[in-house]
Amino acid sequence: MYEFKYHRPGTVRQAANLLVKNEDAKVIAGGHTLIPVMKQRLASPPHLVDLSHIEGLNTIEMKGRSLVIGATARHAEVATSAIVGEAIPALADLASQIGDPAVRHKGTIGGSLANNDPTADYPAAVLALGATIVTNKRRLKAEEYFQGLFTTALEADEIITKVMFPLPKKAAYIKFRNQASRYALVGVFVARRPSDVRVAVTGAGSDGVFRIEAFEEALKKRFSSKVLEGIEVPAEGLNSDIHGSAEYRAHLIGVLTRRALDAANAKE
Amino acid sequence: MAKISLIVNGNPVTGNVDPRTLLVQFLRENLRLTGTHVGCDTSQCGACVVHLDGKAVKSCTTLAVMADGHEVKTIEGLAADGAPLHPMQEAFREHHGLQCGFCTPGMIMTAIDIVHRKGHEVDDHTIREELEGNLCRCTGYQNIVASIAAGAKAMAKSDLA
Predict the structure, then answer these.
(1) How many independent structural domains does chain A possess?
(2) Is residue A144 part of a domain?
(3) Do A101 and B113 touch (CB under 8 A)?
(4) Residues of B in contact with A4 (CB under 8 A)
(5) A64 in a domain, yes or no?
(6) Is A106 on the interface with B (CB under 8 A)?
(7) Does the residue A89 lie in any domain?
(8) Which PROSITE patterns is this protein grouped with (chain B) (predicted)?
(9) What is the pLDDT of residues B14-50, one digit of tens each?
(10) Chain A residue closest in CA terms to B62
(11) Which residues of B touch A103 (CB under 8 A)?
């Protein structure tokens, strides 16, 4: 790890000021992506701004018809929250599958989204549920927020403060894990929303999380795994590596989407 | 350098550390608490698990400065020197839950965290799921799982948390 200065601001405003003042400063909360990357010397921020001591930034609550999760809410907190379990059980289920128990005690939803790893779990939920990312500056729709591999709409001095999830009628997340890394080889989040159906895929796309419109169109007519028969997922644009070929991932997307639909329908 | 003060195994400690210092380095090198091990150094293996504010975390993926003002418990803090072992330690001894012993401190800290979250009656399947982040290369896990199930029950009758 290269040298850096550590800052522990008490408010989001102080944190943002530190980011403005110190070029190339990085935000840290759980540190479960950033610290390993810094150890490997793939990142060398001269300043670290620790958000984990900002009071109220990890609050989980219902606001009107939305579930609002604070940026520094840990995966374990989301997984075990009664509020999340009541509002969007699929989201609690997703959080319970991230990493391992010790990782879930540290990693945060804001950190996962800010990093936008193409194999992370939360981006699939945010895109499928049509969540809004709230920052210290503005509100970003999921579609405009994710911009490719490890790339988001966030500016250098912009900090995620919370994520607002509109409640779906039905939802489920099914993940096929890489056994070694525990990341998603492929993960599919399906959501039946009041106005439409969304299917978001993580782990497979060479450009990060994406939606499958052919599935969504078919599912709008009938929210059932049966309507997907005969719809092929093209392997083009999917990742191919030692863990699985693009064709294998394309196959998995179909299988996992059907399983997710059955799971979502079984929850009633 | 950064000044930090925290509670380790019930005792207040202070240190003047380079912010790069990992919590596990601070514990091992500054405080000489070498029971916490570094295995993979990539948050996979769990040999470095300690409790931070009562929750199991990987101390190889936590900066010492992030623990400033917080409470840490290591394997050394489970039972006083010369006193009877913590029931989870005793269960590992009794059920032969270790061979080389390298992963054991992390296994035991994780095991106690499992009991805190899941209670004293934990089935084998739950224990195996919960051991996701702790690797052992000797035992084949069979006796570790048996140790944790027994230790969980024994903790119900013990004053040691």
Answers:
(1) 2
(2) no
(3) yes
(4) 19-20
(5) no
(6) yes
(7) no
(8) 2FE2S_FER_2 (PS51085)
(9) 999 999 999 999 999 999 999 999 999 999 999 999 9
(10) A31
(11) 43, 58, 133
The maximal CA–CA distance of chain B, rounded, in angstroms, is 47
Residue-level pLDDT at A268? 57
Candidates B43, B50, B68, B129, partner chain A, best to mutate (most A CBs within 10 A): B43
Q: Where in chain B do CATH 1.10.150.120 domains reside?
A: 87-156
User: Which one-letter amino acid corresponds to residue B17?
Assistant: V
Instruction: List the alpha helices (DSSP H) in B16-132.
Output: 23-25, 87-94, 104-118, 124-130
Which CATH number covers residue A10? 3.30.43.10
Tokens of A139: 């509100």
Judge whether residue B141 has pLDDT over 80: yes
Distance CA A6, CA A250 (A): 43
Going by C-beta distance under 8 Å and a sequence separation of 6 or more, which residues neighbour residue A126? A113, A133, A142, A145, A146, A163, A165, A209
Range of the domain at A1: 1-50
Q: Which CATH class is domain B2-74?
A: alpha beta
The alpha carbon dihedral of B89, B94, B95, B97 has a sign of positive
Question: Which residue, among B57, B110, B115, would best test binding to A if mutated, counting the most A CBs under 10 Å from its CB?
Answer: B57
Decide: B31 and B75 in contact? Cβ < 8 Å. Answer: no
Report the alpha-carbon distance of residue A229 to residue A71 in Å, rounded. 39
The answer to whether B103 and B148 have CB atoms below 8 angstroms apart is no
DSSP B45: S
What CATH code is carried by the domain that includes residue A232?
A: 3.30.390.50
Architecture of domain B87-156: Orthogonal Bundle (1.10)
**Phi, psi of A113, rounded to the nearest 5 degrees:** -75, -35
Angle (CA) B122-B128-B130 rounded to 5° is: 75
Is residue A149, in this structure, part of any structural domain at all?
no
